Amino acid sequence: MEKKVGEQFLFDFYGELLTEKQKQILDYYYNEDYSLAEIAGVMSVTRQGIFDVIKRSKTMMEVYEEKLGLIEKFLRAQMLLEDIQKDLADLTKGIKDLKLKSQLNSVIEKLKKVSDEN
User: Fold this and answer.
1) What is the pLDDT of residues 46-105, one digit of tens each?
2) Residue 110 in 3-state DSSP?
3) Among residues 110, 92, 94, 111, which one has the least CA distance to residue 102?
4) DSSP states of 6-32
5) Which residue, 16, 21, 68, 82, is the most exposed by fewest CB within 10 angstroms?
6) Are 11 and 3 in contact (CB under 8 A)?
């Protein structure tokens, strides 16, 4: 997983466990794409202070992931959903019964919704 994407996942999953200040800084950093200097200006803190908060927050969230494994479970579930969708799509290709084909397509659409919501 790309480093920035992995860090974004950490924030998405564990951001609510941080303090309000940590959440605000990481929101600027990940979601608003602010530089450390820009965040420092907005928050009236030194650039080094912002760097330290980000570093400590990432470390805390990595510990949460090590203990809880929510991201790992989520990614595994996403892969399984995709595999199931592909398998069902392959099954529908060989089916002549229109009612059964329609039902399978309905299941595929429902799986896509579940996948998109996660």
Assistant:
1) 999 999 999 999 999 999 999 999 999 999 999 999 898 888 888 888 888 888 888 888
2) helix
3) 92
4) HHHHHHHHHGGGS-HHHHHHHIIIIIS
5) 16
6) no
> Based on the structure, what is the number of domains in the chain?
2
Mean of the pLDDT values across residues 20-29?
97
**Sequence-distant contacts of 44-48: CB under 8 A, at least 24 apart:** none
Question: With the C-alpha atoms ordered 11, 16, 21, 22, is the resulting torsion angle positive or negative?
Answer: negative
Which CATH number does the domain housing residue 42 bear?
A: 1.10.10.10
pLDDT at 1 over 60: no
Query: How many Cα neighbours within 13 Å face the side chain of 29?
Result: 26
Q: How far is CA 18 from the centre of its chain?
A: 17
Whole-structure pTM value: 0.75
